[in-house]
Amino acid sequence: MNNEEKRELCLSLMRAIVRWKLIPNSESNGQYVSSCSAVGAKAHPARFPEKLSEFLIRFLTDPGELVFDIFAGSNIAGAVAEREGRRWISFELDLD
Ligand SMILES: C[S@@+](CC[C@H](N)C(=O)[O-])C[C@H]1O[C@@H](n2cnc3c(N)ncnc32)[C@H](O)[C@@H]1O
After folding, report:
1. N or C terminus: fewer CB in 10 A for the chain?
2. Structural contact between residues 74 and 47, judged by C-beta atoms closer than 8 angstroms
3. What is the pTM of this model?
4. Ligand 1 within 6 A of 93 CB?
């Protein structure tokens, strides 16, 4: 499968995931939320579902490759990338 085919497949999958709510929009009991609570930090209000980040990173990259997120928010993508053996760079405007 070439990159264009992968991109098309990802877009179709993401549309299906949103349309049929296959992955919850936010996880109320995830590690991110409990870590925020533990340090008294406010959880990001619009974070990406971890399972969706995980799928996209596994599908689109190989271990050792770079995941680049220019709207990092909670940095879920960076955390998943690290867990999956990818390198990552994230940009986030809001320091909170
Ligand atoms: C929808 S949220 C991203 C959520 C993220 N994917 C996650 O899982 O938490 C968009 C984020 O982009 C950030 N943002 C907006 N403009 C930006 C900019 N010019 N540079 C860096 N970050 C920016 C916002 O502060 C916000 O946290």
Report:
1. C
2. yes
3. 0.84
4. yes
